[in-house]
Amino acid sequence: TISPVNDCMQRARAVFFVLFVTFFSAFLIVVLKNDLVNKKIDETKNLVLDYIGKDNFLLDDIIVTGRNRTEIEDILKSIDMKQGDNLLKANVVKIKQSLENLPWIRDVEITRSFFPNVLKIEIKEKNVLALWQLNERFYPLDMYGYVIEADYIPNDEVLLVVGPKAGEKFIDFIAEIKEIDPEFAKRIKAANYISQ
Q: Which stretches of 34-161 are DSSP H helices?
């Protein structure tokens, strides 16, 4: 037989266990829902980077190469750093994404160097393969047939494509012509896409 004291102790343990599991589960839900662990990790990381970088890793210069059409002001705004900022805290991934959202930029490589503390940014800009004329307006098209959302005044000869879906179709057209006769493809100055 089970004594009343032992029975009472077992029930107390069971209640305590249920309460513990309930409170622990609630605690985990609150921590995970509010992302408290990651916030604390980020906070600690920033404190460490501030301490380490406050005197030794301050940004001396930003070197940008490969820029032709992109405005330097747009680049600096996207980088969002200035001389004297902590180079260790430069979020290279965020800077790269921000720069690649600029209309002329196709790809970006970013490196940090120390002593001197320099942020090096190598830009590869989009090339205009054609001008698409649609509804009396002209749109520059990149090598994939996408519209480059920027002002463009041609300095060199550029292929003119005309028609409602010409922007989408000209890449395949040019690729086929180049495959058949590359010299002939170089002589094409305009193309009119006629669809049904």
A: 36-56, 72-79, 92-100
Specify the 3-state DSSP secondary structure of 113. Answer: strand
pLDDT in tens, the chain (196 residues): 567 777 788 888 888 888 888 888 888 777 777 777 777 777 777 777 666 667 778 889 999 999 999 999 999 999 999 888 888 888 899 999 999 999 999 999 999 888 778 999 999 999 988 888 888 888 898 888 888 999 888 888 888 888 887 777 777 877 788 888 888 877 878 777 776 5
Q: Which amino acid appears at position 131 of this protein?
A: L
Note the pTM of the prediction, 2 decimals: 0.67
The token pair at 161 is 């494509």
**Number of residues written out for the chain:** 196
Sequence-separated (6 or more) residues with CB below 8 Å from residue 53: 86, 87, 88, 89
Contacts of 109 (CB under 8 A, 6+ apart): 121, 122
